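User: Sequence for GntR family transcriptional regulator below. Tokens please.
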Amino acid sequence: MRVNYNIVTMTNWLPDLANFPGPRYRAIADALAADISSNRLLVGARLPTHRDLAYHLKVTVGTVTRAYAEAERRGLIGGEVGRGTYVKAGTPASAMDQWPQLPPPPGDIPAVVDLSLCTPSSAGVAEALATMFASMSNPADFRGLLEYPPHGGLPAHRAAGAEWLSRHQLSVGPENVLVTSGAQNGMAISISTVARPGDLILTERLTYFGMKALTSTLGLRLEGVAMDEDGLLPDAFEAACRQSAPRALYTVPTLHNPTTAVMPLERRLRIIEIARQYDVTIIEDDVFGFLMPDAPPPIQTLAPDITLHISSMSKSIAPGLRIGYLVAPSRLMPRLEGTMRALNYAVPPLMSELASRWIEDGSADRFADAQRRECRIRHAMAQDILRDCPVIAVPSVGQHLWLKLPEPWRREDFVSETRQRGIMLTGADVFMVGRGAAPHAVRVGISMPQRRDDVRHGLEVIAELLMNPVGASLSVV
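Assistant: Structure tokens for GntR family transcriptional regulator:
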């Protein structure tokens, strides 16, 4: 069927590639998307021939051919043999780089500002998703995605995962990568493979509550190990290994959840040494690692033979994508794939395909860059608003803050008082492992609200309560 374009003669388009890094073909496609977004190119505009554009850009004709194919895959252009290539439509490139500042709700102050979770912005994701699906107009694009896939994922999807991880300090082959339904699924697969009901799993004294729920469901024992501002304490870890014979250590060494601690290299090496001595498998949760490119190397790169490395696109792109990657030593791969079959058979190939295409065309990198930029802006905002408060705020580049409350505040009173004022926080008790006393601290998720003004309002309420602790003695009877 012939597509009717509102044709505008346009044969001299020449993109400026200076602001578009990466392979030349991708830079040309990105520049095309940007010029469509800025209305420099209108729907129906005819693009230069492959040969003409290659001549003016000083690239090969093959590069332009690949660039046009990439742009067509994104749904930006189309055309017919003998009539040329035309602008069709597309997602503005800038949409993926902009954090949406939504109109305020009725009234000057939002009813509720939820700072209780670590959820990234979805800026531009829906638009990119629509464009991606629009570009998959050929039934052949879907046929291979409708069959039962291999338990660890289709080879192309595992290769894309390996490519994505290579951009975040890991160098692994596709044969050591499994596609998972997010980090929680990766945790479940890892724990279920290396431990059996009744076994002991070690973790930091404060840990991600998803691990607490998982070990409880699987009938495993969970023991918290002492930590400081740099994360897990090696001496405490060694003492626990010597006394309790644990099967695995679950740790978040980079931007720890909830404390934001970043484990130094020397400590990582010591933890590895102890794990080897006592035959303990390390399960490394690195979902926040992409936010800190200059962090010490992941434990997996230092001890690949004893480490299961978990990552996810839930923090860098969108939680609903539910795509993660589990890196494991070769000796464990058959067992891990068997566990995957028992738990969820395999990850839906359609979502894996989507993630893979975003990795290949650079969209995933742009989403991650947008998250990093916005986190820096929001941390600067927090440091400014809380600068005069008698509170310890661990500075970082992550999606949350860890606030140690000053006297006379108690965590339950502070969470209750902020809730009454429409601000939702998470108290330290949610993350505490064991029956010991949790510190008087709260986690503040600064990435979840879509509007910066809402984050600012929430932080201002927190600052006001810290400076004027009117409800700090609510628990005193």
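The domain at 1-90 is CATH 1.10.10.10 (Arc Repressor Mutant, subunit A).
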